[in-house]
Amino acid sequence: MRIKGDIHALKIPFQVPTPGGDLPRFVYVFPIIGQEICLVDSGVRRSEKIIFDYLKEMGIEPTDLSLLILTHSHPDHIGAAAAIKRQTGCKVYAHKAERAWIEDVDLQARERPVPGFFQLVEASVAVDSILNDDDVVDLRGDLSLEVLHTPGHSAGSISLWMEKYRTLVSADAIPIAGDLPIFEDIQSSVRSLHRLKALQNIETLLASWDDPREGLRAGQRIEEGLAYLERIHKAVGKSAQETSPSDPMKLCRRVLRELGIPEGLANPIIARSFQSCLQAGTAQDLMI
Ligand SMILES: [Zn+2]
To answer: What is the pLDDT of residues 202-222, one digit of tens each?
Structure first.
């Protein structure tokens, strides 16, 4: 669907295999269709068909796609990147802290074993250019993307600001209250959210795991994300006093219960999020 002007959003449904059965999820990717055709994130394995069909409906050949920006290396963002690059010849841009896991998905699967990893990711893909904080990607015409390094969810997560449309692509940088908490470093996450909050007059917020938000709702999502991190931090502190913090999975189940999320969804990725809370110190240290 068209969001505004050159900005489009495609919702891609997929299943995450868990011991309790498949968990339905979705992820958004964002085609930017101006003088230059750019795609922000690739979606999971086989998403290229949905993306190419959409471009064709707009009268655009997939080979016109010149740029794929990956906001970070997680499976639902890079799963179809190899196929898209192979079939379009586009360039791939990402932050340097994500490069290793994009270019070597076997390494990522070993170091961050998401359930069903290879159902979600087709193959490794080479990164052609590194994006740094404050870089500006010129998409010709009067459209450009400002790169904001917003680590926390992952070390090299980026958000993209489009001044022309006062639109922010936040990808996974803003945690969604009540959703599974996935971050590597809560302290960086909090800092990143404060940085996004400081952007003036966000008119549209485009997150990967949330429907597009307009106007005041955009700013509210950032506030809600911060409040959720505070809640998680407190829940981890409380649970660590009641159970052995040296057993990450036990602590994970206990914290999920505290947050009202089914314990059966506990996995090592979420356990890692909670371990980062233990290392972050007090709420005051977090600047929450
Ligand atoms: Zn992610």
So the answer is: 999 999 999 999 988 888 999
Q: Three-class SS of residue 265?
A: helix
Task: Say what the pLDDT of residue 115 is.
Answer: 84
* pLDDT score recorded for residue 55: 97
pTM over cut 0.90: yes
Question: In angstroms, what is the span from residue 92 Cα to ligand 1's centroid?
Answer: 17
Domains and CATH numbers, the chain: 2-231 (3.60.15.10)
Ligand 1 centre to CA of 37 (Å) is 24
The pLDDT, as a whole number, for residue 32 is 97
Look at residue 287 in the predicted model and tell me its pLDDT: 64
Token code pair at residue 146: 């400002």
The Å distance, Cα 141 to ligand 1 centre, comes to 31
> Which residue is listed with tokens 């059965």?
21
Distance 78 CA to ligand 1 centre (A): 10
Parallel, antiparallel, or unpaired: how do β-strands 91-95 and 129-131 relate? parallel
- How far lies 227's CA from each of 4, 36, 57, 224, 231, in Å? 29, 38, 41, 5, 6
Residue ranges, the chain, pLDDT below 50 = none
Using the mean position of ligand 1's atoms as its centre, give its distance from the Cα of residue 157 in Å.
Answer: 8
The Å distance, Cα 170 to ligand 1 centre, comes to 11
- Tell how far CA 287 is from the center of its chain: 23
Query: Which H helix or E strand runs over 21?
Result: strand 21-33
153 CA distance to ligand 1 middle (Å): 6
- Region of residue 116 (left: phi > 0; alpha: psi -120 to 50; beta: else): left
Give the per-residue pLDDT at 185. Answer: 93
